[in-house]
Amino acid sequence: MARTNIQTLIKKKAENKKITALTAYDYPTATIVDEAGIDVVLVGDSLGVVVQGLENTLPVSMKDMLYHTRIVARAVKNAMVIGDMPFLSYQTGVGNAVRNAGRFLQAGAQAVKIEGGGNILPVIRELVNFDIPVMAHIGITPQSIHRYGGFRVQGRDEATAQKLMDEARQVEDAGAFSLILEGIPTGLGKRITESINIPTIGIGAGKYCDGQILVIQDLLGLFDRFVPKFVKRYANLKQESVSAIQAYIREVEEGAFPGDEQSYS
Ligand code: KIV
Questions:
Q1: Which domains does the chain have, with CATH numbers?
Q2: CA of 247 to the centre of ligand 1 (A)
Q3: Which one is catalytic: 115, 167, 172, 182?
Q4: For residue 258, how far is its CA from the centre of ligand 1 (angstroms)?
Q5: Is the beta carbon of 82 within 6 A of some atom in ligand 1?
Q6: Is 203 in the pocket of ligand 1 (CB under 6 A)?
Q7: In this predicted structure, what is the pLDDT of residue 148?
């Protein structure tokens, strides 16, 4: 099976086939996600919240992201691996952005993701100019948390909806190969998806996007500090893990583990 790449995703949109994407940050999870047959694995800066236990993604560093990207790239054989550029790695000038994005490719990613619309067009153009594929990300952009004072659905009124429509076209024109739409009404997700040629990947953007992405800890029920409305839990691994660990504690305390099968004669 050929590895998923930009052309695969563009073809899927053209053929009306949905694109599947998930985040992963470590070797076992990335292996599982890849073996399950996902199209795209995003090493998201959401790892700051769901792996590092931070309040938001702002403190996540290039060092953190490259560390996790290397690990995930080592595990994934079929999916496309995308590295998420952290806060201040691309906002400080196009030269810095090219250098940092290039380090993601050296770490094994096939593309990078950056948050923003009109404000990051020069960065997208320059990265694409140097053959670094870019996935853009508009709507709720977690690195802008202090501009919004929290995470609020974007594009509910016609003026902001129009602004997002314009930004979607602009990032496409600048050369982005795909666009994440986060936290926008279903109708707007549909309008944007129908108005651009590059695939849209939604998270809280409704069912008409060309694909969907979720944070793996949310899907598996491993993170419960907050659960956004757009999350669907397909398993409750936190509860299952607690039960398994409690069984282990009980058996050790009762002397039932290790048994003969786990012991050397
Ligand atoms: O950081 C991340 O994981 C993301 C996705 C949720 C789109 O940006």
A1: 6-234 (3.20.20.60), 236-265 (no CATH)
A2: 34
A3: 182
A4: 41
A5: no
A6: yes
A7: 85
Closest CA to 178 of 21, 58, 33: 21
**Nearest residue to 129 via CA among 95, 89, 104, 180:** 95
Percent of the chain with pLDDT strictly greater than 70 = 100
- pLDDT category at 149 given cuts 50, 70, 90 is confident
Q: Does the bond joining 142 to the residue before it have cis omega, within 30 degrees of 0?
A: no
- Beta strand spans in the chain (E): 19-23, 40-43, 80-84, 111-115, 134-139, 178-182, 200-203, 211-214
pTM beyond 0.90, yes or no: yes
Tokens of 101: 């994005």
What's the CA-to-centroid distance between 180 and ligand 1, angstroms? 9
Per-residue pLDDT, averaged over 123-144, amounts to 98
pLDDT at 222: 98
Rounded Cα distance between 115 and 74, Å, is 25
3-state DSSP call for residue 228? coil
Residue 213 corresponds to which tokens in the numbers above?
Answer: 């992405």
CA distance 64 to 6: 25
Backbone angles phi, psi at 176, to 5 degrees: -60, 145
Q: What are 21's strand-pairing partners?
A: 40, 213
206 within 8 A of 230, measured Cβ to Cβ: no
Give the pLDDT confidence of 163-220 residue by residue, as tens digits: 999 999 999 999 999 999 999 999 999 999 999 999 999 999 999 999 999 999 999 9
| 173: Cβ contacts below 8 Å, ≥ 6 apart | none
Top mutation candidate among 19, 22, 41, 42 for ligand 1, by most atoms within 8 Å of CB: 42
